[in-house]
Backbone:
């Protein structure tokens, strides 16, 4: 018999956001995120600084999540945490805290794969329609670009993945070339809405089967900017919106060429996106356009796209239902596979 209340505390610390959420079954009671601003001055995440910030943030974030949820730590039934992938130092902070709290409260521990969290965020009970199994998930972030066949909450098959860089890195590095601040992805998205997406054609990198490659794209952007600024030092300033629109248009095209092929090969027309880059307006609009071709599409709310603990909580909830608990010997794993 399922209890009326099943309180699960979730911790996410895979990169530079310290996050904690409290769920009652599949409903989110609180979802707190402490972001680290210090990395902007370095143009990217500095692992050592990230892990130190997690150590400072984790207790206040957990305390705030419990207070917003209106429960005491003694009410908790389980602790879920991100085991990996991610930055080792950052993962260690969350893993150690989760293990210590679970031991102190004598409650089960649930280790979660970060990308499972992004995919299963679609099942948070917030009034949105859940995708039926099986469905395809395009997971896109600063560290990952994958097409995943999702047969159940515990059965996921990676059909294609990036062979080098992730699409989020392609956005950020292209933005850095243009002189934009970190993270550049959201800025490119905003500027792209004012520009001509076909002003400057960029090449589509080749990768086998359903895999991706983005390193060549970044190089093409770099050489293009170097060539044009040599002709006109003010080229970027004069054409910034058009450059951003062209970059975004090409990256969206790269993503959906392979996703179309995955739909054709599997026959699965229920398609979801997840990960930080799924907040991009161009990607969201392009996915929606496929509904005219018979796809049923699923887009997560903005608060569940970037790294957050609610997604770790819902993934942990599915593991709890299967009694798939972790022992205290579990360790952080920065390169864990799906």
Residues:
């Amino acid at each position: 018999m399922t209890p009326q209340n099943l309180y699960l505390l979730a911790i996410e610390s895979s990169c530079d956001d310290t996050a904690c959420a409290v769920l009652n079954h599949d409903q989110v009671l609180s979802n707190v995120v402490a972001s680290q601003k210090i990395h902007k001055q370095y143009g990217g995440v500095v692992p050592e600084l990230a892990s130190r910030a997690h150590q400072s943030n984790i207790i206040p974030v957990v305390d705030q999540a419990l207070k917003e949820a209106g429960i005491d730590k003694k009410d908790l039934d389980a602790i879920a945490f991100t085991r990996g992938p991610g930055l080792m130092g950052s993962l260690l902070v969350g893993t150690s805290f989760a293990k210590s709290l679970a031991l102190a409260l004598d409650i089960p521990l649930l280790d979660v794969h970060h990308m499972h969290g992004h995919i299963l965020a679609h099942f948070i009970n917030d009034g949105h329609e859940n995708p039926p199994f099986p469905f395809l998930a395009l997971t896109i972030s600063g560290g990952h670009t994958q097409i995943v066949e999702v047969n159940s909450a515990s059965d996921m098959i990676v059909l294609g993945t990036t062979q080098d860089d992730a699409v989020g890195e392609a956005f950020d590095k292209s933005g850095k070339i243009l002189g934009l601040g970190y993270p550049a992805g959201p800025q490119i998205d905003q500027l792209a809405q004012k520009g001509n997406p076909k002003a400057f054609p960029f090449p589509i990198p080749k990768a086998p089967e359903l895999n991706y490659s983005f390193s060549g794209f970044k190089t093409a952007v770099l050489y293009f900017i170097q060539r044009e600024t040599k002709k006109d030092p003010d080229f970027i300033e004069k054409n910034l919106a058009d450059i951003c629109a062209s970059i975004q248009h090409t990256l969206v095209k790269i993503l959906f060429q392979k996703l179309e092929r995955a739909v054709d090969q599997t026959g699965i027309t229920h398609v979801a996106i997840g990960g930080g880059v799924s907040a991009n307006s161009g990607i969201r609009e392009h996915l929606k356009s496929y509904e005219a071709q018979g796809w049923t599409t699923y887009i997560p709310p903005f608060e569940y796209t970037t790294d957050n603990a609610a997604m770790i909580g819902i993934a942990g909830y599915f593991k709890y239902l299967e009694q798939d608990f972790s022992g205290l010997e579990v360790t952080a794993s920065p390169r864990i596979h799906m």
